[in-house]
Amino acid sequence: MKRFAPLLVLACSLAACAFASSVSADPTQFGLAGASASLSTNQAGAHPDFTTNFEVSTDPQSNANAFGLKRPYAATRDVHIDLPPGLLGNPNAVAQCAVSELETFSQPGGGCPNASQVGIVKFYAYSLTQAFAEPLYMMRPPSDESAVARLGFIAATVPTYVDVSLRSEGDYGARASVEGASGQQEVVKAETTLWGIPAASSHNTERQTPEEAFNGATSSPPRPPGGTPAPLVTNPTRCGVPLSVDFAVDSYQEPGRFSTLSAPLATIVGCDQVTFSPTLSLTPSSRSAAEPTGLDAELTVPQNESVPGVATSQIRYAKVTLPKGMTIASGAGDGLSACSAAEVGLGTRGAAHCPGASKIGSAQITSPDLSRTIEGAIYQRTPIKGDLFGIWLTADELGIHLKLPAEVHADPVDGQLSAFFEGTPQTEGIPQAPVSRFSLHFRSGPRAPLAAPDSCGTYYAHYEFDPWSGRAPVQADVPMRFDQGCDTGGFSPRLSAGSSSPLAGAFTSFLTTLVLGSGEQNVANFNVILPKGISAKLAGVGLCEGALAATGNCPLSSLIGSANVAAGPGPSPLWLPQSGREPITVYLSGPYKGAPFGLVVKTPAQAGPFDLGTVITRAGIYVDPETAQVTVKSDPLPQILEGVPVSYRTIHVAVDRPGFALNPTSCLTMRTQARVTSDQGVVATPSSRFRVAGCRDLGLSPQLSLRLFGKTNRGAHPRFRAVLKPHRGDANLLRVQATLPRSEFIENAHFNTICTRVQFAAGKCPSGSIYGHVTAVTPLLEKPLEGPVYLRSSNHKLPDLVVALKGQVDFNAVARVDSVNGGIRTTFEALPDVPLTKVVLSMHGASKGLFVNSRNLCAAPSKARIDVSGQNGKTRRLRVLLRNGCPHGNAAPKFHH
Question: In angstroms, what is the C-alpha Rg of the chain?
Fold first, then answer.
């Protein structure tokens, strides 16, 4: 893509070189003795004649030839002439000569056609008796595309070729090279002139044949080349910067040891006369809202190729900003790889060798200096910190090896995309070459790299192109319309949740999955209310707390599960974690935001070649103090990472630590409920049916002991203690009703201080309202729960008895107290479906005693009636001896069913 002709130039030097075995001077003294370069005009974009000269050092001790030339220290082998960037040549401006034609120069009617001559090469050799002014021809480029252009001439009698390549390892200027020059002459100096307009009539008398040149002719009869004159050489369109032509030569005696010189070139002026009027069109491959889409970008730059005019400025910088709402589609990262600078061949003249999986698009480049449109590719660049989404634009055809980087910036707040083409430090911008059309095609389909806006409408992109001429940039807006699939913006998430092993009372994994359709509003918060009775064995599980929780560096002992997340528009969202990548892990934390426990979800946001960092999401685990039902409330979910919107499609969490999650022992049909809030504030409440089986296989045989302490005489106020020991493996208790024998009445006179409901809710019950103490041991927790027993105001005749358990979780068990047949009856109606190992209830006596002996307890034994119901629907009635200080009151309790 560089007008590569400067080329030409010089190869000329061409004539380079001869290797003569008679050379006996010190070859280490060989090198360039002088060099120069000139333009016939330094008007920006004009079409000058371009002349270069170089001369090698000679041995002053040698004899001079007929021209007064001394012998060179060595025979010139290779000549390289580097033109400044932007000094261009168009190989297609004239007819091209085949190698087979040039090599027939000595045959009648042979040689290159008159119309292919583009200049003159004059060279002087020590071993020759005369100087030669040979015609320089435009040749057909080599078939292996090792060069972008080729020039040819006859060095005395030897066909010599000048290959022109681009410095793709640097500034993309042209290099003209003669390599392995003829060893028949000892070249001392050479001058090459490349015509800016080869078909100009002023050159008609310079179109001599190689035979005429060999015979010493310096002019010929007028020979018009025919056809329409076209520019061959074009000046840079950048003004005011120093320019130079760099020469390098080596010798046959010391190949590879190059001598170099730099010759200044006139500074380019007149950039105010250079035109620049690019336009851009952008067409999405899909016009459906909220779906993945590719993008076709068509850049058109009208070129002035007229002979009397000046060329159009090349583009130096390009910036394209896509509409707001058009963002990176995260699904594009699935299966994508990246191409490194080494793989693309940055800094080399080789072809790009990027992995096929890193290709995200194709390109076509049309230039007046190229014989045809060349095909290129767009690759994902290997991400670097602060530059995740860069791309490579490459082309490896017609001897061109283009590696053009582009930065793609995603706004960290709204994801709006801007692409910057600014070249490399060596090029100081986009390489200076005339491009009339530049077409980029980013791939389409489910893995397309872009996501369309969420709703239909006409959106506007913005472009800004800066010219090398330094004039004002060209800016404009480009419309992009999305008018299909417009039924977006709803919010109807679906919930699926349940146990992997639905056996009552068994340990299980608990799985929760939230699913949304493409184009729906995004999830901002996700809270889940678990079915009653779903619990977890926290005993023995570590906790992730403090700085560890903030960073996700949680101990393995706190690991309780894993997660999978799908994000992105369209039918093929990106699933995390990807194969072979770090998993998404779920850890148990200590208290969080008023909850007794929490979750730490650690998500390594890794997809394809991208690493968007580690995302830590926290959630509180709240336990209802009346029902023990668990609610998990998440913090706001991240909506954008490094400029990439996270459009959640599936959130799947598996709490699958062995021996952790526990099924209820109730087989009632229940539901897992969720409260999901969208990023636009819409609330949805999806739910999922939940039910376990096998409840009737669970037993119900709790052990209970009751005891009074203190005086046994009538009117005494004894202390009371009840010890409940459920049988391991039984169904959990739902209801417990204890009816004391008529030997114990309620002492209404001791109902002195009652805690109101308002005080209780605020945690400010007066100490006088405490009438006992309770301790509950559960296999789910490390430590027992314990707390006071309050009398709390009630809607019933008598105050309620409230057991306020405190510990790793808080729970309140409320019992209704009433009198039946003169005896005391206490009923816990709805106990939580959690396993208990032991419960000890102690009630005060004496002045705080709520019981009063209605008779002397030693007169006869007394038994309480205990009615229990299990969560599995089974019931039992127990007759429990009310033990006391009397001899017969200490007998072992007897249970009756």
Answer: 46
Residue 484 DSSP symbol:
B
Rounded to the nearest 5°, which phi and psi values hold at 675? Answer: -125, 110
Looking at the DSSP assignment, which residues form a beta bridge with residue 477? Answer: 462
Q: In 21-131, where do the E strands start and end?
A: 32-39, 50-56, 76-82, 88-89, 117-125
Residue 322 half-sphere exposure toward CB, CA atoms < 13 A: 27
Residue 631 CB partners (closer than 8 Å, separation 6+): 527, 528, 529, 530, 621, 622, 624
d(CA 253, CA 495): 82
Cβ atoms 540, 571 nearer than 8 A: no
Residue 108: what pLDDT?
86
> Do strands 875-883 and 703-709 pair parallel, antiparallel, or not at all (unpaired)?
parallel
Please identify which residue in the block is written with the tokens 């890193």: 358
pLDDT tens-digit readout, 525-556: 999 999 999 999 999 999 999 999 999 999 99
Domain ranges in the chain? Answer: 6-265, 279-482, 494-695, 699-890
- What are 724's strand-pairing partners? 704, 839
Cα separation of 515 and 676, whole Å?
11
Q: CA-to-CA distance for 165 and 400, rounded, in angstroms?
A: 8
Within 76-118, residue ranges assigned H as helices are 99-102
Q: Which two tokens stand for residue 604?
A: 């390594």
Domains 494-695 and 699-890 share a fold: yes
Helix (H) or strand (E) holding 326: none
Do 756 and 866 meet the contact criterion of CB atoms below 8 Å apart? Answer: no
Distance CA(233)–CA(46), nearest Å, equals 8
23 membership: H or E segment, kind and range: none
Query: Which pair of structure tokens corresponds to residue 471?
Result: 């004039």
**Nearest CA to 314 among 103, 31, 86, 610?**
86
Could you tell me if 360 and 449 are in contact, meaning their C-beta atoms sit under 8 angstroms apart? yes
Which CATH class for the 699-890 domain? mainly beta
**Contact between residue 673 and residue 548 where contact means Cβ atoms under 8 Å apart:** no
Topology of the domain covering 494-695: Immunoglobulin-like (2.60.40)
* Token pair for 656: 């699958």
Strands 838-843 and 770-777: antiparallel
Q: Centre a 10 Å sphere on the Cβ of residue 305 and count the other Cβ atoms it contains.
A: 17
DSSP letter assigned to residue 390: -
Q: Which residue in 224, 219, 210, 216 sits closest to 134, CA to CA?
A: 210
pLDDT digits (tens, 9 = 90+) for 804-830: 999 999 999 999 999 887 778 999 999
Task: Give the phi and the psi of residue 52 in degrees, each rounded to 5.
Answer: -130, 150
Phi, psi of 80 (to 5 degrees): -125, 130
Which position has the token pair 């090459």? Answer: 192
- For residues 877-889, give the mean pLDDT: 85
Q: Is 39 helix (H, G, I), strand (E, B) or coil?
A: strand
How far is it, in rounded angstroms, from Cα 525 to Cα 680?
11
For residue 356, the tally of other CB atoms under 10 A from its CB is: 9
Alpha carbon distances (Å) from 701 to 204, 624, 730, 895: 119, 27, 7, 10
Nearest alpha carbon to residue 819 among 850, 863, 858: 850
Q: Give residue-wise pLDDT tens across range 587-598.
A: 999 999 999 999
Chain centroid to CA 524: 21
Distance CA 301, CA 297 (A): 13
In whole angstroms, what separates CA 816 from the centre of its chain?
60
Residue 447, number of CB atoms within 10 A of its CB: 21
Contact 614, 548 (CB under 8 A): no
3-state secondary structure 232-286: CEECCCCCCCCEEEEEEEEECCCCCCCEEEEEEECCCECHHHCCCCCEEEEEECC
Q: Which residues contact 472 (CB under 8 A, 6 or more apart)?
A: none
| pTM score of the predicted model | 0.86
C-alpha dihedral (410, 411, 417, 421), degrees to nearest 10:
-70
SS3 content of the chain, % helix, strand, coil (to 5): 10, 45, 50
